[in-house]
Amino acid sequence: MTDMNSNRDRPDPKQTALARARYDRVAPLYDLMNLCSEFVYRRWREWLWQQAPSRGRILEVGVGTGRNIPYHLRDTQVIGIDLSPKMLARARRRKQKLKAHTELALGDAQALDLPDASVDAAFATFVFCSVPDPVLGFRELRRVVRPGGRVYLLEHVRSANEFLGWLMDLINPLVVATMGFNINRRTLENIEKAGLEVEQTQNVGLGGIFKIIVARSRS
In the sheet that 197-205 helps form, which strands lie side by side, from edge to edge? Predict the structure, then answer.
């Protein structure tokens, strides 16, 4: 199954607007909807951010309501972007409460408003399941991360099990319509299509559906 718009060089404005509207709609209830699962996710988030460079400039794509802000290192300059203004508003409140130094701004993973090779690393947690064109998004990360820099991801992906993968394909349209994200993304393939080099994968839950992925920006 091919991801939507993966052959385009620019974001599809209709799909981008639809994704923004979906997350604006769920923003007031987003943290509550994920309250139970976050008991598991937070230890994965913390571990992932422990791999961050101790210094430098770091981009977080899809900062959402700011779930990762508690794990941002104080000696690094973290820039968090999100497509949804209402999600970002909640992240700003969390930043204020935690007295964090994270910079927050509206932004699209598919068209980053950053110069080439301008960040030392990039992070995303449960983001590329909802980016309309994930390959384009990964190409943008490859562009803005300096050569040799890493991209750190926590994602859920399409199961390698034949039956479960088929089932995920079957119900994916319903999940997208109600929740806004895809459950059947072939994320490792999309990373490689974008020209990033996968260095490490680690299964962390549900038989390989949840993965931590580390990729390198090629020189």
Answer: 103-106, 76-82, 56-61, 119-125, 145-156, 210-216, 197-205
